[in-house]
Amino acid sequence: MNKHLARAFVEVGFIIFLFYSNLLMGEFNRGGAARGHSLAWALGDIFTPENFLIGIIASLIGYLLVELLRHRLQ
User: Fold this and answer.
1) From residue 58, how far is each of 17, 27, 40 by CA, in Å?
2) How many of the other CB atoms lie within 10 Å of CB of 34?
3) Predicted confidence (pLDDT) per residue in 14-49, tens digit
4) CB neighbour class for 11 (10 Å; exposed up to 12, middle 13-18, buried from 19)
5) Which of 39, 55, 70, 72 has the highest Cβ tally under 10 A?
6) For residue 28, what is the DSSP state?
7) Short-list 59, 49, 48, 65, CA closest to 13
């Protein structure tokens, strides 16, 4: 695999990880929907096709912006 492509996969994956961890933390805050439910319920609530699509689009936009800034600052 190309080194640049591998780095893109890692960076996009990390952004998606941050997105889902933020969603999970939001489920368990004071006003979150998981209050009184289990971790399994919260995971089922956040891992939806809609959230996945949002995560993919947001991570690709974030990756492209970071790459643009990275190239402009070099």
Assistant:
1) 12, 20, 25
2) 18
3) 999 999 999 999 888 877 787 788 889 989 999 999
4) middle
5) 55
6) T
7) 59
